[in-house]
Amino acid sequence: MGEDDVESRLVHSLAISTAKPSQHFPLSLSFQRSAFASWIKENINKRQCCFFEKGVREDVCKCGYAKTDHVDEAIKPEDFTGESWDRHRHIHEVPTDAFGEISFGGLGQKTGKYARVSTDTSPETLYELLTEQWNLSPPNLLISVTGGAKNFYLKARLKNMFHRGLIKVAQTTGAWILTGGTHAGVMKHVGQAVRDYALSSSMQGQIVAIGVATWGVIHNRDALVNSEGCFSAHYLMDIKSQGRLSCLDNNHTHFLLVDDGTQGRYGVEIELRSRLEKYISGKHLGNKDSGLTIPVVCVVLDGGPGTLNTIYNAMLNGTPCVILEGSGRIADVIAQVAGLPVSRVTIVLIHQLMKKFFGQEYEMFPDLKIIKWTKMIQDIIRMSHLLTIFTVSEDHHGDVDVAILQALLKASRNSESLGIDSWKRQLELAIAWNRVDIAETEIFSEESQWRSSDLHWAMFSALVGHKPQFVSLLLENGVSLRDFLQDEDTLCELYKKMPSCFFLRKLAKRVNSSTRSRRPAIGIRPRAYSGEMISMTHVSDEVRHLLGSFTQPLYPPSSTTTHLNMSIEDLSLSLSKSEAPSQAPLREDKAEAQRDLGRDLFLWAVVQNNKELAEIAWEQCRDCMSAALAASKILKKMAEEGGDVDEAEDMQELANHYEKHAIGVFSECYNNDEERAQKLLVRVSPYWGKTTCLRLALEADDKSFVAQSGVQTLLTQIWCGELSVDNPVWRVLICMVFFPLIYTAFLIFRRDEVIQRETEKNEEIKTVEKVTGSTLHTNILSYNRPSMRRRKPLSNWSRLVYLYSAPQVKFYWNIVSYFAFLFLFAVVLMVDFQVTPSAAEVLLYIWLFSLVCEEVRQLFHDPDGFGFRKKARMYINDLWNILDVLSILLFIIGLVFRLTTELFYAGKILLCIDFVVFCLRLMAIFTISRTLGPKIIIVRKMMMDMFFFMFLLSIWVVAYGVAKQGILIHNDNRLDWILRGAVYEPYLIIFGNFPANIDYAEFDINSCSMNGTNPLKPKCPVLNENQTPAFPEWLTIIMLCVYLLFANILLLNLLIAIFNFTFQEVQDNTDRIWKFQRYELIKEYHSRPAAPPPLIILSHLYLFIRNMVLCRPPIVSKEFKSKLPGNEEEELLSWEALMKDRYMLSTQQEQSQSMERRILDTAQKVTTIHDRLEREEETGSDAVEKRLARLEEQVVQSARALQWIMDSLKSQGFGAKEAQSLTLSTTDESPDTYVNTSEKEDGFHVNARQFNYPGSKLTRFPVPEEKVPWEVSFSSYMPTSYATEDGGDHVDGSESDALDNYRNPGGRTGITGRGALTRLGANLNVDLVITRWRDSERSVLEYLGVWGESQGTLLLPGGPVQSADQLPASLKKTMGKSLYEKINEKVSEGIKVFEGYVDDCRNTDNAWVETTVLNIHLDRTSQVMVDINNVLVSKHGCLQWQEVSGKTNLGSNQREFLRQVAELHNRKF
Fold first, then answer.
1. Distance in angstroms (rounded) separating the CA atoms of residues 570 and 22
2. What are 781-821's pLDDT values in tens digits?
3. Which 3 state secondary structure label does DSSP give 80?
4. What's this model's pTM, rounded to 2 decimal places?
5. Going by C-beta distance under 8 Å and a sequence separation of 6 or more, which residues neighbour residue 1139?
């Protein structure tokens, strides 16, 4: 098993483990700090001086620290005459003593983390400290901010743009900001930007600002020292008394304090900061599979010569730089010359700009420094792909964050080493940053064309990374879901990469349970990670659980999957279906299984409660209305099962959102075409478990959807059956009794209405045809409605059958039957209840038996395939069914009692009570009524309120009753009279029945029993000697008044208020609830036999014989569920998609016209206007100055031109000398060299003037562009002499006379001598471009490349030679002797592509490289090709055939040679 496989399994097993209870306890804070301190002491050191030597002051060492700061061993005796102090020898590393948390005082109590680290600390250790110990998430971008550290001022507009842009790019991309960390200059501005972000409530998350500062220059650093760590260290920012030191910035979040053992030396941290940046830039971005490394960008504000060095070195390392024009000093110098050709950036121009932007500081700069800086600035400008100038006045650079990201993309786009993967790297960066605006403008331009397969990886990354805007962008730019999700493994991987959520935890439990249930059955010992991977079978089972068992699996299981984890619900479902034993339908369903890839993506987004991604995927669904209703069902089910209240609320909110979507789409469909819309409701959806929209809405409890007029119209049609919905009820009732009336026009059937409408339509079209003389309308009618022409009137028998099979008629007959049953029941109870059952009572029993049979039929009738468990649960949840069961049970018990002599009367009592229940059941007939149906719902709600009220009332009743009974009656032991006095009488008081025994005046001793011996009279209260009540009358009266006050006035009025509130609250929803509940009644009577009880028993007998004895399949009704033919299904879905688009368009228009949107648009426009006014105010004066300067320059040039014309006319001719008088005569530093040498600009070597000479530590003398030609005077030129044979790198002041005989034809290089080359003068080199055609059609031209181990890249085969007519000897080792000799024979046949001077980094003033490039084109069938192919196999990649293309990974010189070869063979490069 590969490492990637193991890693993916481990990660996924971690997801699975979320289903298992954790057995670990969270670590205490003190333990965490102790572990952190231990790690710091083991890995982080500081530097400490171990030898005290007096410096400038007596008590200060040369290291800068006071004598008291040294350890005792470092202080030597005064007569010590040993070695002198040396920084490298006398400073050593010891464990650091400053780390922990830093707390800054003042407003907000800002805190951060810090550590004192040695300059020799490895960047790997620092990165571990940041990510693992300080728990920072690895960055998607590293922003290194550098620039001025003192006397730094930013204009208000540029300051605001910098703050806003820096924070925006850090917040959106997850970047780290790296600065100097002190409270000064640009670092202070970065801190203020972080502070502004922290104060903003509109943003979330933490901005990471890491300050890398020098420990020895930090003011008040003693407060940070503690060998065990400070948690936290209180740091005082004392700016006024800091002197030459610096305070830490209180707005940074983390600090790395770099220590070299000295104090007072600035710049100590630069080297370690560079190494840390380089290390971070080599770390993988995101997952390791992408191969993308963390990008680094340098942002420059202001700055001096040190900042220029930072910019130069960063760009040499390939780091793009963004320079803010207007920030001052070196930033403005570079910004001024960035748009000029390199040849125009002269020494004089740099002098002028330095003087302008540096002011008095310019006077301290020596000329040699200016020359060096000119050369550096020229090199910076030459690397234009790494340089971005942010100019406030330019509209297309509106934000700093855009400029930063565009700089990175520009560097990536122009990098030669990336080749064909350049666009991929750019897109990876944009996705990692989640900046869709950058991708839209920089990558997905209008001229770019993308294949779907090229963007699949990006789509996967955007989905897994939860980047909905990128998903939309990719879909708009060519990604096809059909191609992306065609392979089910991709969808499975998406589920494996799903973020932690409720569905993933449920899925993990299902995987674990299936694994445990499978292992004992199979009997195989499981291996590591065996059976722990999520499969689409698990997903399908879990989704089916959420949708409901009445649906079929969305993803049919594979034939190799063992189904041993079937739940009890699934088992009961399979047993309830008669076709379950047959395997043929299963295979048929699997063969017909259809996949909607938009549905797959939508389902993946919905189950993780991801609204943004779900919204995008929903627009891609084919069956959008079913998808919205299914999402509502799934989300409500998860909200019901979930334990997190907040998560459940989010799910419920999203479920309501998709219910609104379903309502919107259906309303659009119904308004367009009622018939098609109704088909959408009852059609079987092959994409959502072969269920219907109506069933999904009912299961999801989407009352608002069911209450739609279109849905209710469909239900009304089903309720009326084949009868017209316009028939009055009284006509239907009359026809039920006098059925011959149906053969007249007294009762209208739906077929008659359809035929009448078609007849009227045909007559109308014929009329139009007669008037216009056109048959177009007739043809359209016959094409669109072919079935209508074949409709025939109903036969007499059909009319009779349709009348009595209509649910409406069945309902009316059942009402009549039920009233008859109640009448018979009442007669039996009141008139004919004999010891021996009479004929009427026997009829009553038969009638009840038919009712029982009907209830049993309803329980087992399952046309939707719910399964017995769910069907039983649905049956019990219906209140009317509960009353049915209760009434039947009471009747059976009462019947059993009345058949026995002892319990005969008790049986009658039970039957009388049962009659009450039967009468209450009569309320169910009102549920179909539009007027009374909602009122029954209100009554049910009020009954619930009354139960809670009775609890409150019982408290007062019992409290008063017990107190009254105890005061009045002494030790009454009769339980019935105790309950009567303590509960019954206080309850009657509420209704005005006041007791007489609490008042002396109304007391009657004859109405009570003295000792309680009379069971028919209450016991008398305690009496005095004169036979009057002894209780305190005033107390009982006061208690009665208080009781009446609370019970009658307060509680009863409270009950009225509760009822009123319930009525008002429910009244708005009763119509919606009634419409929702109406469906069950309609469906019940639609499936009910036509005959009413007790005749219905004949229908039950028929059904029993048909289904159980004859085993015939049940009759399937198409009113609630119909399967459409393929063509009609496609047409209906296409029409639904069109309606969905209309709905989405109308929704967008409503949102755009909403008040909130208008306010936002207005605010944005006002902000834009304000910004433009500020920009014009700030840049107006600068623009005028620039225009005046250009005008002055043009005037001077015009004066020179006129002078030249005059001189020419005087001399009556035009010569070179006069032409040259256009320029001013200056010293050798003047810019006139540009005029003389501008034509040679393309010929000036660049690589030969690099500062660092390869293979040595020597630095070239800076040679600006204008001083390259030997003809131009350069008095300051003092090059270094170097030759490898000298045995070391050194400067030789005396030059040999032989050097004067060799002068580099390309000009000055900044170094003399032979350098790293083998001889003075020209060093010959031969490069071979061996080409072939890839195939016989000559479609692709390829060249042979050699893998250079030292460079790690492909090179053209070549090397140094003595003469140009032979091959380099170094190729013999690479190619092998045999192949080398055969190619050597082909040299004479080669075509010379180039011969001459080459700009090589090894060139010096006296030694240079001259190259001859030969193109040897080989025939595909030649023997040499056979030998080359053999070498390719034996060398294992040392030689490779590569396509000749502009994306080839070669050096600049060799790319140019390859371009010329491509032109030679007429190929585009």
1. 30
2. 444 444 444 568 888 888 888 888 899 999 999 899 999 99
3. coil
4. 0.73
5. 665, 668, 669, 672
